[in-house]
Each structure stands twice: as structure tokens, then as C-alpha cells.
Input
Amino acid sequence: MSEPRYVCFDVETPNRYNNRMSAIGVCVVEGGRIVRDFYSLVDPEQPFDSFNTWLTGISAESVADAPTFPELWPQLEELFEGGIPVAHNASFDMGVLRKCLAAYGISWKPQVRGLCTVVMGRRILPGISHKLNDLCDYFGLELDHHRADSDSAACARILLRYLELGADPRDFLRTYRMD
Output
């Protein structure tokens, strides 16, 4: 059996509704290494909350010339195709992706099988904090937290560490509704 292709991703959102993204980072993992990465700001076509701008550094001005989600989706769909989506706190990131697809009437898959590195970590390394920044400190990984490109790369590196520790991803697969 060939090793799966993992699509580690992270999204940032413009406001408390978490139904649009203002940035997305993707790292594709194949053969035990990161083989591709992708990052884009996204025009959410919604207002920004000051908290989200403070947290992510992304504002309405930042995304003024950025593509909208429907403009970006063909590239994202190509990245996700044939891979297992992975996120740190996947219920959040998968939820934002699902809500973006729904908001724009984009049909993808009714459901996907994915992984959450928080869930994996709690079983593999019990008794420690599984916040992204704490895990990066634990593993000695660089992180520019709440930046989608850095967070997706950290997720990919954490996944690789779990695989090196002998984790079987099949034990952690979960089905996420996307419709």
C-alpha cells in the first residue's frame, strides 16, 4: 500500500462568524516530507472585526487586491484532490471551508475523511498542552502563529513527527460533512 498524500491546511478568518476566510495556507506532505506549499490572502467580502485583524495582522486593506474564495477555489480543489485533509483543530478549519463552499454555492464532496493533529496529539502525547504554539515549542519548530502559511507548515511538521513516532493515521481518520 502506498503512503497517503496529506494536505495540511490552516485558515484565518475576518470576524467572529468564522464563515469566510481571509487567508489560507496549505502544505502537501508526500513520502514523509513537505513537497508543496501554497499561501494566499482571500477577500472574504465581509467586514473585519478588530480582534481578528489584531490576531492575524490581516485587514480589509490587506485583502483589497486578493482573490475571493470562488476565484481561489480551483487552485485549492486541485491541492486537496486525492489527499487527506489535515488541520490543527480540524473541526474549525474544516468548518470554515464547509461554510465558504456553502456561502458561494460551490459543490465539492458531500464528506471527506480527514485528520486533526490535536486529536492525534492528545492520544500520542497525553499530559502536555496541544496548543499549536506549545507543540511547536515542544518539538523545537518555528512558528509565526496565526499566519496561515506558518500554521499550515507547523501542522505538517507536527503530523510528520507523529508519523515518526509510529502513529497510524487510519486510527485517527474522521468524516467531516462538507455539504
Notes: The beta strands are 6-12, 23-30, 33-41, 84-87, 111-116, 174-177. The mean pLDDT is 97. The chain has six helices and six strands. The chain has one domain: 6-177.
